[in-house]
Each structure stands twice: as structure tokens, then as C-alpha cells.
Amino acid sequence: MATATKKAPAKKAEDTKAPAAKKAAVKRAPNAAFSKPLTPSAALAAVIGATPAPRTEVTKKIWEYIKKHNLQDAANKRNINADEKLKPIFKKPQVTMFELTKLVSEHLS
Description:
Strand content: 5-15%
Radius of gyration: 25 Å
CATH class of the domain at 54-109: Mainly Alpha
Structural class: mainly alpha
Order of helices and strands: HHHEHEH
CATH superfamily of the domain at 54-109: SWIB/MDM2 domain
Shape: elongated
CATH architecture of the domain at 54-109: Orthogonal Bundle
CATH topology of the domain at 54-109: MDM2
Strand order of the largest sheet: 1-2
């Protein structure tokens, strides 16, 4: 009879990871520029309200408005269709979500 030779067990994926991957995540301090309340222009205030808010909150409020009024393009969700309140901010009938932050930042001071 032939004797079967045993193979060494295969190494698990976690055994081959670099030691750097096992370090605990370091908590970062929040950036003060994002937390600073900014005053919206009159056109932007019509959409999100006139109270000063940080950039992150302004972006959240605009997305809430877009979703509430169903302004995302049905065929391409990356495009946002402007309604009467958004036309003064966008300056055109449709923008991409990547243009949104730049266009909104022009209306914050």
C-alpha cells in the first residue's frame, strides 16, 4: 500500500496581513473649517433657511430638499434638476452632484 503524504495546512488570509493593519484606528480631531457656521445668501436661504450653519449641515439640508421634492433625474441619479428655488443657485436647469458643493459654496459667507 502506498502511504499518503500529508500537506501542510494553508495559511489563513489573516496570518499574511501586514502588522500595520492590526493597529487601532486613531480618532482624528474635527476640522474647524467644517464646523464654522456660515451665513447663506438670500437665494440659498429660500431653500435651507436663513440661520447660519456649518458647510456639512448646509449640504445635508440641500440633499433633504432635493429628495423631498424628487429633483434627482430619474434616468441618471447623479444629475439634479433645478426647480424655481434652485435655479438662482445652480444658474442652469440641471447640474451633477459633483458640481453641487462648488455652486453652494458661492452662496455662503
